[in-house]
Amino acid sequence: MKDLPTPPEVEDAPKNKLDACIIKISHFLSLLFIFTVFISFYEVLMRYVFDAPTTWVHETASFIGGSLFVVGGIYAFATDKHVRVVLIYDAVSQRTRRYLNMFHHIVGLAFASMMAWASFTMVESSWFTPWGDFRLETSGSYFNPPYPALLKALIFIVFCVLFVQFILHIIHEIKGLRNHKDV
């Protein structure tokens, strides 16, 4: 029996509460792109019209853009818009897709755990001095914000969230494989 295509409204639905939360937060955070445009416009205005360039816009815009890029990874996974080989994926049955998803999620779980550990070591060295005192790593510029330390912390948090996402998606696929409608 041929598999019927999954309706788009079901396919795009979040698979769990964490995915739904990530989608909601990401939609709110996407407004920061507009903020970045405004501050960049402000910089251009100040630099070329008033000959008074800012010291903070470039680093702030880069930090916001980098942060949103990092969060975009878990958003893509939550909305099931991540990269996959659709030539193969679309040609197989729904049950085989679940097995392919399981393989992807298990490999992704291993990747997320290793990256979370690596990013933790980066956070540790960017938040604490070698002798253990708390001190955030800064950019070293005239403005000198702690953006490098904050971005490293965000990367660590995102990899921890991704780790949990992979576990929840594995559970979802196992439940789907146990469901006899997929056979």
TrEMBL record:
One Pfam family hit: DctQ
Tripartite ATP-independent periplasmic transporters DctQ component domain mapped to chain residues: 37-158
UniProt GO cellular component terms: plasma membrane
Keyword hit for Protein biosynthesis: no
Protein source organism: Vibrio rumoiensis 1S-45
PANTHER family: 2,3-DIKETO-L-GULONATE TRAP TRANSPORTER SMALL PERMEASE PROTEIN YIAM, SLL1102 PROTEIN
Transmembrane region(s): 21-41, 61-78, 99-120, 149-171
Lineage: Bacteria, Pseudomonadati, Pseudomonadota, Gammaproteobacteria, Vibrionales
Name the record gives this protein: TRAP transporter small permease protein
